[in-house]
Amino acid sequence: MPQVIVSRKPFDSVFLQPWIQTALTQHDPRLGDSIIPSVPIEDLGQPELSSKVLSNIRHFVKVTKFFNVDCYTVYASIRDSKVQMLS
Fold this sequence. Notes:
21% helix, Telomere replication protein EST3, 22% strand, telomere, nucleus, chromosome
């Protein structure tokens, strides 16, 4: 099979999202606090189920390790800016 060279690669960066551009124009030094709210103390037992986390489309996490995929359920550990969770 011949190798195909694509002249243009699709590029979908999170940094191109319009809400980030709007937020950066404000030049707020504590910008992260207004974009990603803290998890309430009562939700710290299961932070991945917190209503603040689930309702916020701007909550960034990094998948640190995949463990299993079973019946469309992904088992992995994730990390945000403060804690690491097993989901």
